[in-house]
Request: fold
Amino acid sequence: MQIENKINDQQAITPQYILSQLETRVTEYNAKMILKSALVSTGLDATYTEALDKDQSHSLCLALIKKGGPAFQVGTEIYRKYLKN
Reply:
């Protein structure tokens, strides 16, 4: 719940938060693979752990949406909840 509060207060999204959302839909291994693939496709390092700025968050959500399936669901949910203005 700390991550949830941080996101609501500062609009900061972390790869760890996205990973936790993916893990609710797929196995831990698959969630890590989906996230690493999306991070690399957006030009970030696969081991990136810092809070994402708005542009990075936007790009990562679009990369997840592009992957389809559970990644699509997580990407659209995060985009609608935190990035859509």
